[in-house]
Amino acid sequence: MKAGFLFNHDALHQINHSAPIIVELLRYSDVAVTVLTSTPEQETAVRALLGDASAKVNFIRLVIGRTARALNATLNWVVPFRRIAMLRENLAAFAALDLLVVPETTSLLLRDHFGLRDLKMVLIPHGAGDRSIGFRSVMRGFDLVLLSGPKVRDRMLAANLITPATHEIIGYPKFDAINAYAPLPRLFERDRPTVLYNPHFDPRLSSWYTMGNQIVEWFAQQDRYNLIVSPHVMLFQRRLHASVEHRRMRWRRTLPQHLLQHSNVLVDYGSSRSIDMTYTRSADLYLGDVSSQIYEWIVRPRPAVFLNPLHADWTDNPDFAHWRLGAVVDQMAHLPAALDHASAHPDQYRAAQEQALRDTFDVSDRSASSRAAEAIVRRFR
Questions:
Q1: Residues 32-55: b if buried by 16+ CB within 10 A, e if exposed
Q2: Bridge partners of residue 3, in order along the sequence
Q3: pTM of the model
Q4: What region does 277 belong to: left with phi over 0, alpha with psi -120 to 50, or beta?
Q5: 276-303 pLDDT, tens per residue?
Q6: Bridge partners of residue 286, in order along the sequence
Q7: Residues 373 and 302 placed together within one structural domain of the fold
Q8: Angstrom distance (rounded) from CA 199 to CA 293
Q9: What is the average pLDDT across 231-257?
Q10: Is 6 inside a domain boundary?
Q11: 124 lies in which domain range?
Q12: What is the DSSP string of 241-267?
């Protein structure tokens, strides 16, 4: 069985969600694994994760032609042009496979539009969040969807996005890639309670566009908290963000230089620490909006505050289910009191977070990666 793993994104944040499965799949003697990457950085990251097992893997670097590169410079801010071109211009590499494992949905174009009708498609969502984009009708196109737990499963079943025959619960492979006991770096000179600010890039839902600079400015001027600013890695990849789903476009604001020079403020626009759980393990209080990273945060329940600058009607909306895990703030003026209250009452939302953790991540005595590999082999061998 020829199994491919595709990494075809502008950043590296999707790799930890599916690459750990490769090691487990290599344990099956009748399975050959090919890793397809679209940047040298992706290949380096996958090889580092696999270690010695990378010697058993066939690596293919995908490339696009000069015309596609030129068009990408014009169109990539509106549509993921480069990603689509990588698919269209490397069909021979994909045609040699029996199945393809992906952490995103764009790759379905291979079968639905580019003619590879026999290629089996396996999805492992890169995150376990609540945003509506994770529950779109495109999910129906996959032969197998591997899910983290009952929360996502139940919502997908209710929306007829999956069937009992097209999904399995396997846990969260990213956790297999993270050493939860690795020593943490010292991030600040002074030991203060540390807040992790994790804004999303979504142009309709993110707090960054309206509150980001104000939030960082406030933290820079006070001496009670340290602040880690670690947005979704895509926020600072582009100046203009467009959402086809929400039909909204916004310019991404840049932090003034003086805010980067305070000893109690650390800004990380997208290093490896922003995707390997260094910050979620290091901080004491989470501050965010709609990122699925909140579910990685509650692996160790701690206070959280959510920002709602656009006054979304969220209470009974499943797209905002995670906002039940902490206080919700609509205005910048209310943030200091919310932070102080959360610090003074760290267990207020503990029970809700512990329940959400059980609902989101199915845990067994086997690793998620091992369960995923078994599910793939059982389904497609």
A1: bbbbbbbbeebbebbbebbeebbe
A2: 33, 99
A3: 0.94
A4: left
A5: 999 999 999 999 999 999 999 999 999 9
A6: 196, 304
A7: no
A8: 10
A9: 82
A10: yes
A11: 2-172+361-380
A12: EEETTTTEEEEPPPPPGGGGG-TTEEE
59 membership: H or E segment, kind and range: strand 58-61
Q: Is residue 177 situated within a structural domain?
A: no
Nearest Cα to Cα of residue 289 among 232, 370, 364: 232
Q: In Å, how far from its chain's centre is CA 278?
A: 15
> What are residue 59's DSSP bridge partners?
35
The reply to whether 219 and 354 lie within a common domain is yes
| Count of structural domains, the chain | 2
> Would 182 be classed as within a structural domain?
no
Closest-CA residue to 13 (of 278, 297, 275):
275
| pLDDT reported for residue 243 | 74
DSSP 8-state code for residue 126 = S
Which residues, other chains included, contact 22 with Cβ-Cβ below 8 Å and sequence gap of 6+? 5, 33, 35, 46, 50, 53, 57
Reference 168, options 3, 12, 21, 5; nearest CA is 21
Residue 186 lies in a domain: no
User: HSE of 352 in the Cβ direction (CA atoms, 13 Å)?
Assistant: 15
**Stretch 317-341: mean pLDDT, rounded?**
97
Q: Are residues 203 and 350 in the same domain?
A: yes
Could you tell me if 227 and 81 lie in one domain? no
Sheet holding 327-329, edge to edge: 265-267, 226-229, 194-198, 285-288, 304-307, 327-329
Secondary structure of residue 169 in the 3-state scheme = strand
- CATH number, position 330: 3.40.50.2000
Token pair of 48 as six digits: 């580092």
Residue 371: is its pLDDT beyond 80?
Answer: yes
Exposure b/e, 149-170, CB count within 10 A at least 16 = b: bebbbebbeeeebbeeebbbbb
pLDDT at 309 over 80: yes
Query: Do 336 and 369 belong to one domain?
Result: no
The C-alpha torsion from 265 through 241 and 107 to 360, rounded to 10°, is 50
C-beta separation of 37 from 94 below 8 A: no
Token pair 């690795």 is found at 182
